[in-house]
Amino acid sequence: MFSTLYGVRLFANVPAAFGFAASSHMASRLIWLATYLILIPATLFWAELSRGTLRRFFRAMTLVACAIAVAGMVAVILNTPASVNAYNNAAVISLLLVFAVVSVFPRLAKKYLVVPNRVIAVATVILAVAVIRENLRTLFRLPQYPFFEPVAMAVFMLSQAWIAAEKIFTDQRRLLSIEDELAIAREIQTSILPASVPNLERLRISAAYLPMTAVAGDFYWFITVEENRAGFLVADVSGHGVPAALIASMIKVAIQSVLPCAHDPRAVLEGLERTLSGQLKGQFVSAAYLWLDTEKREGSYSAAGHPPLLHWHDGQLERVESNGILMGVVPDNDFPVRRMSIQPGDRNNTKHDGSAPKTHSYISSPTLLSRALPLLAHTVG
């Protein structure tokens, strides 16, 4: 708005610009209106380039600019446009002097400007000299140089374009660096997940991991004790990105401390919470642990703030809810354990290879499905 109004005012001063009009009255009114209105977007623009006390000063001067604009428009309507010009000139000169002084001195520029830069400082001084001279010319009858103010404004706008382009290239380089680091972080996080699923008797497992972002706080792990017994851990760290991924990597380290009690879901979750309690730094972790014994056809399940387990049993989908509180909320949580039986016929499989049909029971977690992290465990009858 600032540059547009400034351009309109400069353009209206060109004799050929309004040659189509019956008289120069329209051009004169347009010049006066632009002169009185331009101070409003100018103060708002400079306020965005400033901070601290200088920003508050320009915001306060916006109110002064609005008052001058209203008075100037009334004067234009009453055919006395020059009656408010002295106040407008005083406001313009004071604002440009303040901004030019702050831009020139490095210490002030660093303290009060959002982007302290020598290019902007030089361009601001050139614009300030041109505009102040133009405003004083109407008061003291100074000689007129028609191209001085347009060239000064062009230099000022080019300096803004230079800084904008410089900032874009700097941000682009920083973004590329961050993307490279995220790619490495993605590879590291992939390496902490199981490379393959365990091959167990009477148990078929499949898993997939598709994070929504480059790195995430989702984690899963298999604890294989023997061919008939295994544990399945699913965890989710609150939030996204690198902080969540770092805590997810800590969970893998913490698993080593609970291997001796893999058959007890309560002990597994309590051990994880003890290990992680001092490392979460305000984050939270939900977790679910399922222990399966395919020889005895038994399972036990416990969770910490996790969505319920889904168990297909007798032709119905059961919600197995056995939950404690999220890890990281309060210490020494209790994680109740739900025991269940895994029976043949829980789920019929019509696909077979000529032999007797095989039956499966299906156990999964809704969080795995909703977060594109499915864990399918089928016990073969």
3D structure, described in words:
- This protein is an alpha+beta fold.
- It folds into two domains: 2-172; 194-379, Phosphatase 2c, domain 1.
- Helix content is 49%, strand content 18%.
- Strands 2, 3, 4, 5, 8 and 9 form a six-stranded mixed beta sheet that branches. The chain has a five-stranded antiparallel beta sheet with strand order 1-13-12-6-7. A two-stranded antiparallel sheet has the order 10-11.
- The longest helix has 45 residues, at 148-192.
- The termini are far apart.
- The relative contact order is 0.07.
Assembly context of the chains: single chain
**How many domains?**
2
CATH class membership of the largest domain: Alpha Beta
Shape label = rod-shaped
Return the structural class.
alpha+beta
Q: List SSEs in N-to-C order.
A: HHHHHHHHEEEHHEEEEEEEEEHE
Mean of pLDDT: 79
Please count the helical segments. 11
Major beta sheet, specifics?
6 strands, mixed
Uncertain runs are: 346-381
Can you say what the CATH homologous superfamily of the largest domain is?
PPM-type phosphatase domain
Give the helix proportion (percent range). Answer: 40-55%
